[in-house]
């Protein structure tokens, strides 16, 4: 009799566990459906991001040589933050760039090198705590000369992941940005790069190869500074359009539940995939991803001409891939999903969207 009760209880417990798993699956599906409803993404702004991604991604051609699929450099990494530039630079490589550099402070370099032998790490930048007042001028001239040796080789720069806010370092970075602009190198500006640009808008104003990728805080600061008002979510797309056109000729990727893009002429959105997990570093993956797709979109535009701004195409493809990788990682790791898990899913996501033939 006791054995019989034991069996019933075990079956009941099994049933409860099954129901709990099903509940979880139902909740996850609900979250995904709710996300697209609650994001308020206007269906007419939503683009076919997967087709765009396919249209700008190069085929793997045995006739190509190293470098042709893109050389990316991330300017970022200081004493506090070494993860952010690593996430951005390694994502660029995993998506398909041939070479990925990091230009960081001397203290951050050995740490970033130790994360990966794949990255080319330049210990060039200095923070105030390492520089005497009287040496500032000569050091910033030297930093700029060193960076200049490399600059022309890069197909896109990512400015800002883990850069920090040291005033001396930011002055050097604004000089690097001026040189990059003179050489027509595209720049994806993120993290502390946005802090710099928000206080010095002329660094990007009138430069169509600049892409700004603000998160919720960074967007708020930009809106307050440029439009002199608060963020208005009722009229989000229109405000984004005004922001991009007021700064002048830049493209903005506003990150959130849905990602929105504007170059001041049009607004588009991507709401597909995504993950409810909000661990730090996902924006860094996105910046590396946008840099690669922007470089590829420019290659396509140079060959075939372009109807759409390559900066918009780069943002759309970068966002779609990041969101797909985040959703795959979440399927597997659920609450324990970390940025490094998402990076591991970049290759599979790209393969699902655009398989290698
Ligand atoms: N693993 C890593 O290495 C990662 C590193 N990361 C790196 O972290 C950096 C900051 O990016 P984040 O996204 O945390 O900035 P955000 O949400 O605007 O600020 C949150 C709050 O903090 C404050 N605050 C920020 N910086 C400050 C400073 N230097 N000094 C003082 N206050 C500062 C800020 O204040 P406020 O700007 O509003 O004054 C707000 O209240 C950036 O380099 C990013 O790339 C991330 O990519 C994640 C993974
Ligand atoms: N609520 C959300 N739902 C789904 N995806 C989101 C949500 N918020 C942001 N994302 C996605 O996560 C990615 C990173 O955006 P996020 O706002 O976390 O950047 P961030 O704060 O700059 O990140 P980081 O920690 O790297 O600095 C973007 O591709 C965006 O699409
Ligand atoms: Mg960020």
UniProtKB/TrEMBL annotation:
One of its GO terms (biological process) is nicotinamide nucleotide metabolic process. Belongs to the NnrD/CARKD family. SUPFAM superfamilies: Ribokinase-like. Pfam families: Carb_kinase. Its EC number is 4.2.1.93. Keywords: ATP-binding, Lyase, NAD, NADP, Nucleotide-binding, Phosphoprotein. It catalyses: (6S)-NADPHX + ATP = ADP + phosphate + NADPH + H(+); (6S)-NADHX + ATP = ADP + phosphate + NADH + H(+). HAMAP family: NADHX_dehydratase (MF_01965). Its cofactor is Mg(2+). It comes from the Eukaryota. Catalyzes the dehydration of the S-form of NAD(P)HX at the expense of ATP, which is converted to ADP. Together with NAD(P)HX epimerase, which catalyzes the epimerization of the S- and R-forms, the enzyme allows the repair of both epimers of NAD(P)HX, a damaged form of NAD(P)H that is a result of enzymatic or heat-dependent hydration. GO terms for molecular function: ATP binding; ATP-dependent NAD(P)H-hydrate dehydratase activity. This is ATP-dependent (S)-NAD(P)H-hydrate dehydratase. (6S)-NADPHX binds at residues 162, 215-221, 284. It comes from Mikania micrantha (bitter vine). InterPro entries: CARKD, Ribokinase-like. ATP binds at residues 255-259, 274-283. NCBIfam families: yjeF_cterm. Residues 49-353 form the YjeF C-terminal domain.
């Amino acid at each position: 009799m006791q054995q019989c009760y034991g069996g019933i209880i075990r079956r009941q417990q099994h049933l409860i566990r099954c129901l709990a798993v099903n509940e979880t699956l139902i909740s996850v599906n609900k979250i995904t459906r709710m996300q697209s409803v609650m994001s308020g993404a206007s269906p007419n702004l939503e683009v076919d991001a997967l087709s765009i991604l396919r249209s700008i991604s190069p085929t793997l051609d045995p006739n190509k040589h190293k470098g042709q699929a893109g050389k990316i450099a991330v300017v970022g990494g200081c004493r506090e933050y070494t993860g952010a530039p690593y996430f951005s630079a390694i994502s660029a490589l995993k998506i398909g760039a041939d070479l990925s550099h990091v230009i960081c402070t001397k203290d951050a370099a050995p740490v970033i090198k130790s994360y990966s032998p794949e990255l080319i790490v330049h210990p060039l930048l200095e923070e105030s705590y390492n520089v005497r007042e009287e040496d500032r001028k000569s050091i910033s001239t030297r930093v700029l000369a060193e960076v200049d040796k490399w600059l022309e080789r890069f197909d896109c720069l990512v400015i800002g992941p883990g850069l920090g806010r040291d005033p001396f370092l930011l002055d050097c970075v604004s000089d690097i940005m001026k040189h990059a602009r003179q050489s027509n190198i595209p720049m994806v500006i993120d993290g502390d790069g946005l802090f710099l640009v928000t206080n010095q808008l002329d660094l990007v104003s009138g430069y169509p190869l600049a892409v700004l990728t603000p998160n919720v805080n960074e967007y708020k600061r930009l809106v307050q500074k440029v439009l002199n008002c608060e963020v208005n979510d009722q009229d989000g797309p229109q405000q984004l359009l005004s922001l991009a056109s007021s700064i002048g000729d830049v493209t903005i990727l506003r990150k959130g539940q849905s990602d929105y893009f504007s170059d001041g002429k049009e607004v588009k959105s991507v709401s597909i995939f995504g993950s409810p997990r909000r661990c730090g570093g996902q924006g860094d993956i996105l910046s590396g991803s946008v840099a690669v797709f922007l470089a590829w979109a420019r290659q396509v535009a140079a060959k075939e001409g372009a109807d759409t701004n390559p900066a918009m195409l780069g943002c759309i493809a970068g966002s779609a891939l990041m969101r797909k990788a985040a959703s795959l990682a979440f399927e597997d790791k659920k609450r324990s999903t970390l940025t490094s898990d998402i990076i591991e899913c970049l290759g599979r996501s790209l393969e699902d969207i655009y398989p290698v033939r």
